[in-house]
């Protein structure tokens, strides 16, 4: 029933007295419930007052007043105290009173979330009492029936929106940074646990095999290792860590911080992944690292995300009720995870792309040095090839490498022999990355243009081709093959050119002689 102001004119003195008495009683019961987490037993006193007010069509007024009281109480009792606990943190310096303690963020964040969530849960209990009183009134009217779920959905949604709005409106600028630091620390702790566990497994594996050799028994393989006994404690610690993080995430979600929370742990995961890629790749170009990076993704962030999503009740990829399967379920299997959620599959794709892109950028940034070390650096070239196949950012390689060539190689201080040697290595390396030769055509053009301006280019080329080693002390001869192939293309382009002076004629004859000799 909606309140009709004109209905006031039809009320007699007795009705008005009853109405005022009911409102005062409702107001007093509300104060008793909300004041200093009052006595929940006062909720029973709400029923007659709510019923009386509803009979006069004041349903919406009752609900609005109660929600406003909840809002004022939440502001004064919970919100101010919640934010005050983070005042010790300074976003400008990353330090503050008490912040230098190692576990400051974890301790303050967990405690403050627990306190404010208790306040929120208490208010939700009070709201349920109002819903119960409204439901009893509806059930007393024969021609009006309303399910309690309808009241609950409407009022709890309004209360949740109120809580989220207040907190987001008063959000300090440094709070997202605090969340990011918290998740960064927890993920590093988890990564260290797994690293130590893997080292212990490797040591135990070596000890077991050494012992078996001394006993003239067959050594065991890694796949045959039984590590359940000595990894139980490690798994327990990991479970405890993830559960603690999950509780923090759940509390943050319940307060309306879902987006900020996901951004915080997502940025922490991606930052940790980039640090791991940098640590594994470094300046070592003689060992492949892409496989190790993907194994780490499976072992740390995906295991963490799986446990977190399960803790938070994320749905699996398989929908048992419909018998349908998400198209994302065609992704690779996950060690120890029988049924990955769709959220986990999406995270895997996101993390792998980030890993490929990060490694790709590292290798592109050092491509000049990598090619100098070729063919010893061929593992780094192979990693780069796979990264580019995944990311499709081929133009980034071409632009970056041409820039490096112009700045570091195609200068007056570089000898023609050095330029030619680098060109030979570039030919081989880029053909590994792109057998079609498109990259090589784009990158080789500025090198060829520059070499045409050097007076000793033909002489150095002839020397490289006629000594049978391509100028390479290893004597492999492959450099000459690659160089001849590329320079033949240049010769074909020059066939239609006019040679008016003796120098050009001599260069052309030297080119022809070199081709014939090789």
Automatic annotation (TrEMBL):
Residues 346-454 form the Anaphase-promoting complex subunit 2 TPR repeats domain. GO terms for biological process: metaphase/anaphase transition of mitotic cell cycle; protein K11-linked ubiquitination. One of its GO terms (cellular component) is anaphase-promoting complex. InterPro entries: ANAPC2, TPR_ANAPC2. It holds the Pfam family TPR_ANAPC2. Coiled coil: none annotated. This is Anaphase-promoting complex subunit 2 TPR repeats domain-containing protein. It comes from Zingiber officinale (Ginger).
